[in-house]
Amino acid sequence: MVGQSTIQLFNLLFQQLVITNHSIKRNAGYLARQEIERILAPLRADPLRLEPFGFKVYSQNDEDGILAEIFKRVGIRTGIFCEIGVQDGLECNSLFLIHQGWRGTWVEADETQIPAINEKFQQLLTSGQLHVQNEYAKPENINRLLTEGLSRIAGKADELDFLSIDVDGMDFYLLQSLELKPKVICIEYNAKFPAGVIRCPVFDPNYRWQGTDYMGASLSAFDELARTMGYTLVGTNITGANAFFVRNDLTANRFVSDSSSEALYNPPRYYLMIDHFIDQVGHRADFGAYESTDRYKKVLQPQNTESVEIKKNISRNGNLVRNGIEPAVNQWMPLNYQSNFETWPPLDAGKWIEFNPSCIQLPSGRWLGVIRRDNYPPVPGMGTIWTVELDDCLRPIGTPHLLLARGEDPRAIVVGSRVFIFYCVIEHSEDGHFSGASMCIAECLVNETDAPAFLHIHQILQLPKNPLQKPSTGTAHENWEKNWVPFPLSSEQIGIIYSHAPWTVLTLNVNASSNQRNFENAYQGPNLEWAWGQIRGGTVPVPAPSVFGENLLITFYHSSARVGSRKLYFVGACIFDAKAPFTPRLITHSPLLVAPYNTGAHQFGWNFAGSVVFPLGAQPLENGYRLLCGRDDGSIATFLIENEALLPRLEPISVPLILHNSQSEILNGSHEPLIPWPFDESALYLARLLVLMHHGHGVFIDAAPGDGAATARLASHFERSFVFVPDESAKNRIKKLFAINEINTAELFIGDIHIHEDIAHEIKLICINDGAAVETVLERIQYLLIKHKPVLAFTLPAENEAADKIQRLLSDCAYTCEAIFPFTPLSRLAIPSETRADYDWLV
Known about the structure:
Mean pLDDT: 83
Helix content: 10-25%
Number of helices: 18
Largest sheet: 7 strands, mixed
Shape: globular
Radius of gyration: 31 Å
Structural class: alpha+beta
């Protein structure tokens, strides 16, 4: 009887002990969380510190979150990894990456862990997404292990996005022996040594960790080594376990300015690992099949910049997949490469020219155009604004009606029962010269029985300039306000896209009970990365494709850049949140439309030869959008953009790459490419035209790259490039330029151009910028011109005799020799006569 009572008492005490232990662990987790918040609080003052971004999914501590933030900042969405030291794989730095589409290789020395890996990750191993190597990593074999593993995963071993090393001992010597240059490195450091102390264990090939603090080198030792290898320390994790290094060409302005080990050192806080990251209340880690329940909307979450996966109705064609979306066949070609604008007939030929239209749908469902009209011949700054009824395809079916005797570039929106027309008015000084521009609103009431007027102005207001109240810089453009893009938020509030660089949205109160119109808030976001000139204006935003979810808007913007010898306009698209803070989410990095080089505003009497496409209105359709555009400042046209072509081009907004050139000027995504030394910008004018002419498939050859600007622009566009330079110095210079711009598909050669027959049929473009070398090169590749017919861009020699000889040679090969660049008369474009018609849409 006593024995039974003793057993019952023991069981009761044991159960109480279990409950108490569980409670202690839970409370320890809570205390650890409080301690973490206390540590992070002062670090949050610097938005570039990495510790506040930490979180654990499969990593030992907070490495998963820190790595996610690093990859976000450097623009890596999915890539290739190698992790050395993973044990059974369930607690490591790359398993969360696998969930996000990464591929890679694990190196694990402990053979007893391999059966568990093979069993748990059989599907990944079978599919080829993961490869495992059971071998002890040493300085003498680390490069072989990387080469073998990457070759199995990626088919080549020349590029690695992420390397993680955690072997509890000789980590320093593995890093020191590394030949490959991963973009990001995570490596364990020994935090018992404070910053400034350089300590490293003596190399011992037979060393195995015994569970003591004799393991790994100090942070300052790793920092000193990494700097010699071309890496920058960007952070450590809060527990003082791992350090993170990023390759120097990827760091500029993305991480803390003080990258010293003294500034970024975290002391050993292993108690946070035990009390929070490991023994927190919850379940032990495991791995199995996962499927996202909201796979089409994941990119739109604020913390997520991963790829967008589009529904299965997108066409499949076997081309290169970018960001989870398979592109159309001509991914890099503007859509008007194969489709045409539908141009309105003149409404009053010889008397008026009409252009830059927007459109609204009236309560009855009828469409109304709000357009700019100028007398012919036009006088700058003297535009007028009219309305005209449109059919369901946005073609004019009514008589134009004058609404405003002075105004330009109208954008109209419907807000409840009212119509608001935003337009600009050009201002003149006393001497008659342009002095600026103001934005105005015409607030109108709708009367659909009063055709062709439809709209009656209730009041006109001039909006204040410089609504953000920026300090004056004294520049002339400060007095110009144009291209504000409105969109309705409610019956009493309007949103306005004020600028795209930086992204800025204003909100305007339009309460019907008051005639006052006041700005309420301003929301700012990142610059939109776009390599085709400064983004301006665009269409009134309309609902974005439903595949991306609800509460999103899309706007089609325009920009302009010098191409060849004239300015061309381009059209792209941006998707952003329909509610504050109106964060931009997706963008088309390549132009959807381009104004053809072979047209221009001069045909309508303007004193400039730019080619213009100026979208202001967008009509949502079941399978896309119909844009209403101004063309060449003298006509109106529509263009149909189908979702099948639009969706593959939309990519998540990324953090722009920022560098400084030798003059300490900031270079960013608007410079294409990024060039850290002075260069001849005119070299890009022809390069842009050549990019527009080619979809990028095939090989590009450059026989004289010069300062490298045009070479880098074209090499980033084509699948493969071969560049021939005169000497080692030029090779190193171009190699550096390619590294900065992450161009890894180009090969550099010293000496005269030579082309292997096995790639001759793939060559689509050959550039020769050295006039003295053109004749020699053309004679050497004459067989290639006749057989494979690539396009040529070259500089003609100044000597007449040499120039004549080159033109005869091209004629013998059935090529044109076109002087289409009046500002650079020696620049020539040579196109095979039999394919010349393929380029008529542009040139």
